[in-house]
Amino acid sequence: MAVRRLLRAGERVVPSPPVPGPARPCDPRVSLPAAAPRLYSSVPAPAAAARPRAEDDKLLSEPLSHPDFFNVKELFSLKDLFDARVHLGHKKGCRHRFMEPYIFGCRLDQDIIDLDQTMQHLQLALNFTAHIAYRKGIILFISRKRQFCHLVESTARECGEYAHTRYWQGGLLTNAHIQFGSGVRLPDLLVFLSSLNNAFQPHVAIRDAAKMNIPTVGVVDTNCNPCLITYPIPGNDDSPTAMELYCKLFRMTIIRAKDKRRQSEVFDELRSKAEGN
Amino acid sequence: MAAAVGRVLRLGGRWSAAAPGGPRAQMLRLIYTTTAVQRKNAGASGPEKYTEAFIKKQIEEFNLGKRHLANMMGEDPETFTQEDIDRAIAYLFPSGLFDKQARPMMKHPTEIFPEQRKIQWGEDGRPFHFLFYTGKQSYYSLMHETYEKLLSVQKYQDQLTAQDLPPQKEKRENICDILNRNLAGSRWLTKIELEEMLLEKLSDDDYSRFIQLLQKLMTLPCGNIEEKYIQKFSKVVPAQLQKIVIEPLKYDERGVAFSTGEGKRKTARATAVVYDNGTGKITVNGIDVLHYFPVLQDREQLLFPFQFLDRVGKHDMVCTVSGGGRSAQAGAIRLASAKALRSFVTEKEVEFMRQAGLLTVDPRVKERKKPGQEGARRKFTWKKR
Fold first, then answer.
1. What interface predicted TM-score (ipTM) does this complex get?
2. pLDDT in tens, B343-360
3. Which residues in chain A touch residue B31, judged by CB atoms under 8 angstroms apart?
4. How does DSSP classify residue B51?
């Protein structure tokens, strides 16, 4: 039910992901040619298309024609989720109203999350992340849980992506060109490994990302608000085993997607050389 | 009101190409902006940033200028050092300004322009550092590293416990122990030094958190492993209390031990030579003490060090004193004799003398008279009308 609600009528299972680049005045689903991304200021984008456009398109359009191009389904199984205690939620009193569709039931006052739905959501989210990584987007991992701060930062470093597990300065996304300097590129995807901050309120980045048209993937526990998150993953965000599982899954998808991209580029080069000869 | 400026954004190139998947959306979007947005906020960009090209040019100009200066002064351009440059500039541009920083100077650009962060992202826009988006990347990466060291130390400890080995294998006197025992051997970097190291502004909270983390790392039993890492953030403090060297006794022709001391009080300066095996005779400027200091109070001052050490009749003293008044001269001689007596006495007694105040120079001097007052403190008589 929840999965179908995500899709609008007439769409395929995999909606086309937004293009890397912070310039979002237009519909994010329109694809720009894969030249250098637009800069945040009004300076025109440097016109440097390294490869001819026809192959460009093929490189980017081919993954979008498969429902699960990167085969993320094989990375996890229901048993893995259960062993990592992903199904354990908080107590009945902490339950958020909007999480009710994702909850399987309540045992001895503790909410149990429906792992079938989690599987579907997780597959969608990982697939989306893989597509973003394939198209060389910037992924920012966010978690405000002090226990897992080091784990999340190490995961991000190993993938070659970015992490933010510290105090969130207010204007980071919305005031970026003053805080960082003009010409900064904003993240293209935010991954919340825990969507609450230390005061048990929704993290400010969820709202800011929605303001800046940046898609979000987030692990939502039974006390979280899944509203503004594009790809919520109902699941436990408090157990170390669960967090390690999520980190492992994200790391593997991103590395897989990047490798795929490199492979495709190499094939394209070889093919173009062969054609040239 | 600023005029609204309409801008039509046209997406680059190929709008006729098959957009991959999905419904084809509108390619044109009209955006209205005002000139207010386009006006640059002068203060918001922070302090002026120097590009690498600019610094390079400055260095070239400096080197060229150095050679010109050497030629001007008639010296060899190859062996023209910074001191020569400073002297040449002081000669060519004499300045009467008091502040040394305000005078004309010619220094290497790296000393003049403060070190700054270069652009943090590459051509494709991806930042270089994985914690770039936190805002304080160097500080947080430092915290990350330090925490990693902490975890590795804990893991090592667990390994040792698993093998039933004691947690601390060697006990070496190292910086960690020094810091633990709060000796004046070393100190942590100050906040300003850390800011210079990281090239980033820190808040007091950030700094204290970092120091707490380092202290936690140190207090772990196996913290010795990460000694090198901790040493990067600590500085050895040269012991400020230089051990005052107590001179050994000297012996004159007769074989009698003696030692000298110098003392001062207000404007009086005194030197005293204290001889061993004496009868308690004191001579000041060649005159006997009874004639030089007729007042009992002054003689008591002279006697105090000997009385304190129970050596009243055992030493002879010959002193010279100049300057000051009656009391000042007495105080100066007292200090001089106490300093001389250090050589005759054990270290413990020296410490007792120090605590009694016999070895401290009295810092009190005559306070100056202020304008609008009659004396240093005395005000003019207050008249109601």
1. 0.80
2. 998 888 988 999 999 999
3. 25
4. P
